[in-house]
Structure to design on (718 residues):
């Protein structure tokens, strides 16, 4: 067994889901012949044909809107939005129809649609190619929102998302697409909507997701070299949040730093902080801190190293928590 | 062939038309052309009157525009390959469409580009070096839209078409359509640039509706370069794009986008229609993206090299050169001068690019709001203090 990239893991996961269920479709801009701008759907059209892997017209509202129609007809579409900042023409269909049809129909019209969105920065891109809009979706009732943080999770989570009868907004950390890990198919995956402790530690808990998982693991390694043991939790599911492992951890460490690329105001990170202060109030030795992107539009890429939380900023947050 | 009362002989299926025209690179019978790919100036009864001022010096000037624009475009591509730019969006092959349209504008007109309109920017007096910040990542757009009559680049596909329509509605509400009562001033118009892929976006269709019902003086200038990244034109439409306008109630016209004179003439006509209250107008400039979508793209994965060879025979610059030599007996000196000027421009462009200052850590916090935000001010102050704590440590 050789290590595979997150991009390949997603490709394999999509392929497995398509082989298992003939109703699974892939649709989006450039997903067919090109295999997607990140090559996540590479080779799928060649093997499954143009009616299961659709190169769609260039219109995100059209992609989501027709996926909804296909789902009503019994298909399980997996939509690719090319970049995070391009999802907004489809936002209306996601919020008004995709999220609400089950509720409106009293369960008669399920929406087994997955919307894959490469998200986050760190790739030196132009505007609209580096955003972290997950909190906008997590705020919408009826949507489930997840983010994978490593190749193993990517492989399993995409298949679990496709199997879900609810609409899943599936965030993929694009700057981690080419990082590798061993994928052992004999190890069963945890449930999709669960968070996981990736590294145990006693001093401070770090809660993170998506592209920040690698950053936090690196920070924990650096802290370990200095004699401080950090616990790292990959939230994985942003809506609904799975707070159990976070509570359990915070009750031991007494300290929590939530890390995200997304800005902090009215965010997933803010929700985690609110829940922890409510349920772990007597365990906390310090206020819950957030280390996040700033509340600005995503800046020109020459500024992104300042904008994005890095190892130093995470450890600065850890130091502030410990010094409280 | 059947025949009964009311039977209309079917045209080839729309997909056949689109795919066929695409495969041959031919624009079809409705294509407006005044300079053939072989460099022969042909009569165009409808549009020749819009070229009355195009004498030999003027044609030389259009040639120079195209050569200089292509030169800095190629230099930018190289700069990206050498790591000096994060990405570049090449315009190779679309010089005539952009220079023809750009030179049809007056200073009072307003242009809304997508992100490939480096040639139009050139015509609006924006120095090519001002385009670099977006692609080097030092800014999101450095020029002043009001001062240049050139809105900032819009990256989200099709968004700018509604913005252009709103601007044009404002021109009409301000009484700028039809010109001044004493005739001393002609009217204003707006031009909006987008591609064949964008025509699928809801925003573009909505802009057609809005501009039609508000009689907005906007020229929709669609550069149909045949490819939306990997997707060919037939993935976006059944009918030739210019015919879409009819359904919205305004004229649509297809021009040879590799013919700078035809593009100039047709755009002048369209702008005049708008200025005098007969807008909107849709122009489909039939052209070809000779390079990749961006420097991140690899066209060899989805299109055949033969197609490019076909379009090289329709090169927008070469046909003007041939015309200047054959029909106007222009000597080699002129072409050598333009080549030398383009090399000097490329050298200045490169020099500027490699010496651009990095934005400071405070840059990303500026101009988020008109009035200061306490939340953001606190974030900025904390970050600058954090940033300062590293000084002298690295």
């Amino acid at each position: 067994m050789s290590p595979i990239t997150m991009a390949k893991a997603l490709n394999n996961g999509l392929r497995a889901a398509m082989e298992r269920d003939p109703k699974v479709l892939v649709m989006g801009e450039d997903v067919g012949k090109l295999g997607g701008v990140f090559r996540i759907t590479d080779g799928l059209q060649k093997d499954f044909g143009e009616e299961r892997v659709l190169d769609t017209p260039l219109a995100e509202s059209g992609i989501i809107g027709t996926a909804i129609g296909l789902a009503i007809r019994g298909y399980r579409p997996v939509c690719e939005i090319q970049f995070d900042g391009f999802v907004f023409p489809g936002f209306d269909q996601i919020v008004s129809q995709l999220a609400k049809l089950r509720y409106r129909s009293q369960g008669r019209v399920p929406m087994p649609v997955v919307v894959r969105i490469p998200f986050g920065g760190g790739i030196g891109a132009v505007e609209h190619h580096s955003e972290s809009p997950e909190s906008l979706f997590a705020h919408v009732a009826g949507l489930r929102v997840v983010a994978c943080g490593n190749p193993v999770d990517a492989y399993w989570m995409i298949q679990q998302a496709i199997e879900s009868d609810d609409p899943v907004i599936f965030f993929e950390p694009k700057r981690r697409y080419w990082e590798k890990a061993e994928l052992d198919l004999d190890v069963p995956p945890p449930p999709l909507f669960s968070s996981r402790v990736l590294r145990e530690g006693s001093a401070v808990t770090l809660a993170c997701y998506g592209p920040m998982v690698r950053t936090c693991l690196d920070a924990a390694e650096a802290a370990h070299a200095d004699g401080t043991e950090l616990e790292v939790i990959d939230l994985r599911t942003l809506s609904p949040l799975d707070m159990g492992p976070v509570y359990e951890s915070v009750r031991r460490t007494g300290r929590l730093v939530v890390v995200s690329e997304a800005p902090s105001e009215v965010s997933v990170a803010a929700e985690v902080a609110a829940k922890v202060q409510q349920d772990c109030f007597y365990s906390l030795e310090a206020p819950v801190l957030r280390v996040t992107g700033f509340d600005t539009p995503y800046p020109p890429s020459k500024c992104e190293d300042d904008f994005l939380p890095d190892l130093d900023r995470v450890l600065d947050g850890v130091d502030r928590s410990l010094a409280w | 062939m059947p025949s009964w009362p009311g039977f209309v002989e079917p045209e080839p299926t729309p997909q056949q038309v689109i795919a066929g025209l695409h495969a041959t690179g031919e624009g079809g019978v409705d294509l407006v052309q005044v300079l053939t790919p072989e460099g022969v100036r042909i009569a165009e009864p409808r549009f020749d009157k819009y070229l009355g001022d195009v004498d030999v010096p003027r044609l030389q000037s259009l040639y120079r525009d195209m050569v200089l624009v292509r030169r800095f475009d190629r230099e930018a591509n190289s700069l990206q390959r050498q790591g000096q730019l994060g990405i570049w969006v090449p315009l190779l092959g679309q010089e005539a469409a952009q220079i023809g349209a750009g030179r049809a504008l007056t200073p009072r007109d307003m242009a809304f580009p997508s992100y490939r309109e480096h040639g139009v920017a050139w015509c609006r007096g924006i120095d090519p070096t001002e385009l670099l910040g977006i692609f080097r990542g030092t800014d999101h757009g450095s020029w002043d839209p009001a001062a240049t009559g050139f809105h900032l680049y819009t990256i989200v596909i099709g968004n700018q078409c509604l913005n252009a329509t709103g601007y044009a509605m404002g021109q009409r509400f301000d009484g700028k359509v039809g010109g001044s009562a004493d005739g001393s001033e002609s009217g204003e118009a707006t031009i909006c640039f987008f591609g064949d892929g964008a025509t699928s976006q809801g925003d573009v269709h909505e802009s057609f509706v809005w501009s039609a019902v508000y009689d907005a003086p906007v020229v929709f200038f669609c550069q149909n370069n045949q490819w939306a990244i990997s997707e060919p034109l037939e993935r976006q439409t059944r009918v030739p794009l210019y015919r879409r306008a009819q359904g919205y109630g305004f004229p649509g016209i297809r021009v040879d986008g590799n013919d700078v004179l035809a593009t100039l003439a047709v755009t002048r006509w369209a702008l005049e229609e708008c200025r005098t209250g007969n807008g909107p107008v849709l122009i489909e400039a039939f052209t070809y993206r000779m390079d990749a979508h961006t420097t991140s793209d690899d066209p060899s994965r989805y299109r055949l090299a033969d197609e490019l060879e076909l379009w090289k025979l329709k090169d927008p610059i070469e046909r003007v050169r041939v015309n200047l030599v054959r029909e106007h007996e222009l000597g080699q000196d002129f072409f050598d001068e333009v080549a030398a000027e383009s090399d000097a421009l490329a050298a200045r462009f490169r020099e500027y690019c490699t010496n651009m200052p990095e934005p400071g850590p405070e840059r990303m916090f500026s101009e988020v709001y008109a009035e200061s935000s306490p939340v953001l001010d606190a974030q900025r102050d904390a970050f600058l203090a954090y940033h300062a704590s590293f000084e002298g440590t690295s």
